[in-house]
């Protein structure tokens, strides 16, 4: 139901004895035009009655039918006896008759301001800037004459060229729609729209509306038409401007809304019980005067079904529904939403009512004139001027919000200028949010969530609309939703029921009141249209209209506006019901489809802009649980750019936590993915849910993202202990620990202990991660405390796979090998001893990154002779090393291999084989082993790498020639001997060739003129010749091959 927007009318002038024909309000002046042609000028203040200033007697010869004011020329426009005259203020003289506008029936005035380019040029040439535009005031006066319209215009007070345009009919009413269009009312059924710029007239075309489109609930339209016929009322033309796009025209008892294209712009129409006598518009409300007998009576007298006096009905131009109905005689009272009862005669006298003019004050109001229809009463009491004053805009909006009519409140706000309501923008945002809540309550979740997103509503408030499974401690019961969003506090349900019972008990008393004592609402107006004015309360009569009301409600349910209002009303007046499972799921789908993802993306960008990312700071942020619910609700609903970093963080925590819980309900497969990326989820809010659902993988990911590694590893250990397979038991813990960096070293050491106890090999994998590099010294210390053998494996990994070249690590590994070898020998673990010792020997033999002297110092007292020998070799003490091989180890082949390793001709190690031979043949220690045979084997295999003379000198005297035969043969083949032999042979060969050449050079042939070629038998002459062996035959050079073949054949 619509709220009552106007206060009870009050009389501002009474007992006016002349017949008032026109009224004009201009500033604080009110001009009254009478049937006698007089003009009364009054002063009016909002808190007082009219005060007479002067009376212009006989301003016109006949009745002043219409008054207007033109600001450009500060003149009053008066229409009298089909003549339009301009009267300049304040003297009203000299009058100017608009002679071109003959046979005038009406006029309309419209003024507006536009910006025009300056006509001054050249003043800004130096700065090259355009002159600022100049505001220009333009005023048009349209005069509707017989079958034409005459157009007067003024530009900043200067008269412009007169224009005329023929019309098919004579305009009885002229109303401007905008700066270019005006609507003409020819008759009660004929209207047109005139374009000033195009000078074109377009006839208004109206299609018959469907019965369901009437604003008095379409199912009742037929009844109102029937009643019109019964009343026999004569329809009058009427047109008013509703907004910049629409106008309302009267056709019989129906109000039709047309657009600028001269066609109906809305499917809904206004259905009056009878053709209104006059209409007026006070933004955004439509006033209409209804004739006597058109309004139903609520009197208990069965004989009286209608009210016998006129009535003023007020409708909203937004919903087209009645808001108030005042029946004459009006009851004047103080400021209240409805008139108070007053003592009235049993049969009240009717009066004619004229809707005259709007007030130009800040608070919209309307003046109307009432004149008793009874001549004697009219002569004695005269006419009265009443003022309908609208409540303040803020009060109207508050009433609509209190009633839950948020859609109507928003539409009303659209009609209000920002100058008239200081906090208009804030109120719009607040009411849009409240309307979205009512949409949510009505099950239109997508629409509500889209509005929340558009308005940047605090996520805590949006999440609070959902059950505790989604919102946690933010959850709010539905009866407190409106209050949460800044709406009025919901009244106690018990108190409401008590008031309902009291209201029902008083309805019978209300019905007994006289008809003129009530402001009628939409419900009672509907009954009036039906002509059903039975006895009893409205509630009782509505119960009797069960079927009809059901049909009417069904027909209006298709209208979005009415749907919104219905939803709003239900949210305020009925106990909120629990959301069923389907609605619950749809509501969450809406939340995860738009609001939460949109907020999450934008919050991420906003936080990133100030250098805050969940990957780096999520674990450092104060938990959401430390902030009270009230503080979370108090976070501002504003664009993210206007929030502080702390507020952005709270937003992000709320959004991510709600998104996860929502995913669990509608998209469980996506819940885990949220934790695998950086997020701001509140751990305390979700870990219980994850444990209850046994979503341990997701819980582990959450702990990891929040850097709560201790909890994550504890969880993995608990899960691993339930596994029977050893690999499965420790796999997840190993993989988790491999990703922790140096900053979590203590946690790694603490958690790795359990893994190592289960499987040392898998435990070692923790420290072999390619993703992070832990402090190697600390890791080695940690592993050595647990197991030296485990530490050697870690050091081997560093050296072999990570190419570690640090001397410290190499020294440490060698020392560990030696320690393990000695410990294993003491424990008589031969396998471990041999394995460790082999590794030690291989290590010290192949690497050079350890300190040899340091290691030798550690092993010098031990009986690890081979290792000591290798170290001595590294130190260049080859004789001592070979002595260990020969005397201690008695490993002659290894001694030879040692010599091969270090032998290099031309260097200080070129005598290493000779050193070994000396150790064999000249022992420095007492030995019982015969070393002659190893010495002879050495001589036979490596004679070339020894000095022959020194080797022979070392041999004992009793060694036979046969024992050293191989050595001696090889000795002769040594380079020094081999080179001398080759040199002598080469010299002999050269001498032989020289002698043969000398012999050949002594042979000659003599060519004379008579010498003949034995091949061609021609004279040889001075040509090239060839001499043939062995007898010295001479032929031409060209004959040489043929002669040589002949010689060969002859030899055969």
In short:
The protein is of the alpha+beta class. Helices cover 42% and strands 17% of the residues.
Describe this structure in words.
The chain is of the alpha+beta class and 1052 residues long. Helices cover 42% and strands 17% of the residues. The chain is built from 39 helices and 31 strands. A hairpin with a 2-residue loop joins strand 12 (148-155) and strand 13 (158-159). Helix 20 runs antiparallel to helix 21. The longest helix is centred in the middle third of the chain and has 29 residues, at 581-609. The chain is elongated. This is CNH domain-containing protein. Residues 497-519 have a biased composition (Basic and acidic residues).
Instruction: Tell me the fraction of residues in β-strands, as a range.
Output: 15-25%
Distance between the termini: 147 Å
Helix % is 40-55%
Structural class: alpha+beta
Shape: elongated
How many strands appear in the DSSP assignment?
A: 31
Features:
1052 residues; 5-stranded antiparallel β-sheet; 39 helices; elongated; membrane; VPS39/TGFA1_Znf; CNH domain-containing protein
Summarize the SSE layout with pairings.
Elements: E1 10-16, E2 20-26, E3 29-34, E4 39-43, E5 51-56, E6 66-70, E7 75-80, E8 83-88, E9 96-97, E10 104-116, E11 134-145, E12 148-155, E13 158-159, E14 163-166, E15 173-176, E16 181-185, E17 191-195, E18 200-203, H1 221-231, E19 239-241, E20 246-251, E21 254-259, E22 270-271, E23 278-282, E24 285-290, E25 311-316, E26 322-327, E27 351-358, E28 365-372, H2 375-381, E29 383-389, H3 393-402, H4 406-415, H5 424-441, H6 445-454, H7 459-463, H8 468-471, H9 481-484, H10 493-511, H11 522-530, H12 538-543, H13 546-556, H14 560-573, H15 581-609, H16 614-617, H17 629-633, H18 645-666, H19 668-675, H20 683-692, H21 696-705, H22 709-720, H23 726-737, H24 745-758, H25 760-765, H26 776-786, H27 788-800, H28 807-826, H29 830-846, H30 852-859, H31 865-875, H32 878-889, H33 892-902, H34 912-921, H35 932-941, H36 948-954, H37 965-972, H38 975-1001, E30 1025-1028, E31 1033-1036, H39 1040-1051
Antiparallel strand pairs: 1-29, 2-3, 3-4, 4-5, 6-7, 7-8, 8-9, 10-11, 11-12, 12-13, 12-14, 15-16, 16-17, 17-18, 19-20, 20-21, 21-22, 23-24, 24-25, 25-26, 27-28, 28-29, 30-31
Helix pairs in contact: 3-4, 4-5, 5-6, 5-14, 6-15, 15-18, 18-19, 19-21, 20-21, 21-22, 22-23, 23-24, 26-27, 27-28, 28-29, 28-30, 29-31, 30-31, 31-32, 32-33, 32-34, 34-35
């Amino acid at each position: 139901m619509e709220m009552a927007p106007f206060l009870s009318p009050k009389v501002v002038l009474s007992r006016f004895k002349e017949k008032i024909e026109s009224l004009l309000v201009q500033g604080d002046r009110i001009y009254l035009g009478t049937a006698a042609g007089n003009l009364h000028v009054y002063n009016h203040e909002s808190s007082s009655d009219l005060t007479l200033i002067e009376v212009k007697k006989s301003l016109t010869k006949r009745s002043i039918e219409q008054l207007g004011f033109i600001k450009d020329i500060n003149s009053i426009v008066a229409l009298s006896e089909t003549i339009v005259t301009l009267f300049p203020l304040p003297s009203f003289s000299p009058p100017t008759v608009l002679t071109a506008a003959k046979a005038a029936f009406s006029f309309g005035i419209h003024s507006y301001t536009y910006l025009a380019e300056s006509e001054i040029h050249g003043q800004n040439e130096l700065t090259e800037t355009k002159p600022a535009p100049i505001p220009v005031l333009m005023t048009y006066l349209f005069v509707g004459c017989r079958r034409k319209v005459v157009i007067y215009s003024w530009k900043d007070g200067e008269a412009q060229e007169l224009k005329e345009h023929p019309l098919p009919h004579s305009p009885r009413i002229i109303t401007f729609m905008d700066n270019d269009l005006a609507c003409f009312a020819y008759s009660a059924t004929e209207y047109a729209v005139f374009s000033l710029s195009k000078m074109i007239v377009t006839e208004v075309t109206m299609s018959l509306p469907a019965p369901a489109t009437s604003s008095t609930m379409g199912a009742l339209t037929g009844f109102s038409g029937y009643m019109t016929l019964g009343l026999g009322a004569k329809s009058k033309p009427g047109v008013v401007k509703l907004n910049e796009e629409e106008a309302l025209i009267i056709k019989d008892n129906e109000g039709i809304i047309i657009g600028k294209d001269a066609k109906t712009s809305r499917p809904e129409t206004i259905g009056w019980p009878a053709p209104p006598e006059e209409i007026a518009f006070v933004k955004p409300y439509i006033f209409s005067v209804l004739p006597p007998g058109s309004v139903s009576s609520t009197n208990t007298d069965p004989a009286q079904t209608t009210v016998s006096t006129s009535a003023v009905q007020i409708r909203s131009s937004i919903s087209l529904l009645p808001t108030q109905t005042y029946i004459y005689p009006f009851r004047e009272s103080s400021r209240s939403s409805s008139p108070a009862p007053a003592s009235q005669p049993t049969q009240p006298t009717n009066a004619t009512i004229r809707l005259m003019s709007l007030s130009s004050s800040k608070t919209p109001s309307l003046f109307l004139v009432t004149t008793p229809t009874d001549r004697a009463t009219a002569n004695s009491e005269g006419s009265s001027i009443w003022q309908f004053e609208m409540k303040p805009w803020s009060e109207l909006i508050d009433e609509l919000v209190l009633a839950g009519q948020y859609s109507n409140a928003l539409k009303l706000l659209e009609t209000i200028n920002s100058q008239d309501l200081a906090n208009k923008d804030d109120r719009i945002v607040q009411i849009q949010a409240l309307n979205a809540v009512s949409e949510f309550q009505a099950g239109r979740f997508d629409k509500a969530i889209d509005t929340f997103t558009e308005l940047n509503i605090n996520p805590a408030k949006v999440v609070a609309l959902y059950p505790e499974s989604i919102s946690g401690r933010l959850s709010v019961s539905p009866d407190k939703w409106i209050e949460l969003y800044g709406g009025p506090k919901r009244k106690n349900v018990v108190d409401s029921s008590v008031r309902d019972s009291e209201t029902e008990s008083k309805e019978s008393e209300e019905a007994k009141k006289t008809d003129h004592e009530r402001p009628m609402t939409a419900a009672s107006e509907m009954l009036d249209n039906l002509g059903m004015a039975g006895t009893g309360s409205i509630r009782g009569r509505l119960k009797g209209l069960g079927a009809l009301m059901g049909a009417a409600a069904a027909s209006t349910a298709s209208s979005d506006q009415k749907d919104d209002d219905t939803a709003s009303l239900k949210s305020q007046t009925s106990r909120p019901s629990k959301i069923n499972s389907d609605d619950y799921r749809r509501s969450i789908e809406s939340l995860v489809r738009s609001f939460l993802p949109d907020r999450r993306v934008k919050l991420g960008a906003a936080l990133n802009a100030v250098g805050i990312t969940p990957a780096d700071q999520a674990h450092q942020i104060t938990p959401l649980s430390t902030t009270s619910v009230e503080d979370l609700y108090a976070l501002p609903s504003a664009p993210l750019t206007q929030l502080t970093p702390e507020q952005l963080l709270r937003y992000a925590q709320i959004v991510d936590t709600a998104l996860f819980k929502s995913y669990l309900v509608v998209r469980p497969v996506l819940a885990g993915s949220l934790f695998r990326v950086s997020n701001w989820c509140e751990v305390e809010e979700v870990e219980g849910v994850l444990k209850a659902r046994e979503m341990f993988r997701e819980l582990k990911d959450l702990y990891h993202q929040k850097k709560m590694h201790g909890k994550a590893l504890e969880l993995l250990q608990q899960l691993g202990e339930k596994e029977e397979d050893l690999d499965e038991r420790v796999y997840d813990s190993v993989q988790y620990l491999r990703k922790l960096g140096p900053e979590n070293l203590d946690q790694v050491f603490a958690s790795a202990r359990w893994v190592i106890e289960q499987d040392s090999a898998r435990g070692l994998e923790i420290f072999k991660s390619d993703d992070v590099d832990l402090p190697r010294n600390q890791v080695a210390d940690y592993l050595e405390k647990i197991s030296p053998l485990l530490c050697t494996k870690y050091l081997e990994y560093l050296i072999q796979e990570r190419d570690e070249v640090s001397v410290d690590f190499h020294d440490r590994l060698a020392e560990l090998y030696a320690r393990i070898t000695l410990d294993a020998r003491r424990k008589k673990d031969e396998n471990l001893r041999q394995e460790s010792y082999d590794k030690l020997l291989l290590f010290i033999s192949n690497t050079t990154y350890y300190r040899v002297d340091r290691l030798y110092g550690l092993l010098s007292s031990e009986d690890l002779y081979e290792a000591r020998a290798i170290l001595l070799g590294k130190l260049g003490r080859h004789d001592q090393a070979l002595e260990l091989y020969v005397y201690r180890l008695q490993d002659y082949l290894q001694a030879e291999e040692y010599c091969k390793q270090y032998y290099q001709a031309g260097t200080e190690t070129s005598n290493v084989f000779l050193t070994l031979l000396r150790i064999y043949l000249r022992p420095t220690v007492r030995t019982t082993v015969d070393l002659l045979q190893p010495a002879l084997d050495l001589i036979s295999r490596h004679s070339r790498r020894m000095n022959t003379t020194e080797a022979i000198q070392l041999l004992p005297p009793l060694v036979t020639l046969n024992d050293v035969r191989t050595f001696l043969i090889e000795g002769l083949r040594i380079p020094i001997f081999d080179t001398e032999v080759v040199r002598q042979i080469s010299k002999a060969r050269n001498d032989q060739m020289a002698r043969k050449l000398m012999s050949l050079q002594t042979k000659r042939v003599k060519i004379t003129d008579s010498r003949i070629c034995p091949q061609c038998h021609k004279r040889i002459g001075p040509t090239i010749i060839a001499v043939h062996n062995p007898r010295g035959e001479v032929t031409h050079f060209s004959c040489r091959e043929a002669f040589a073949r002949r010689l060969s054949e002859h030899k055969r």
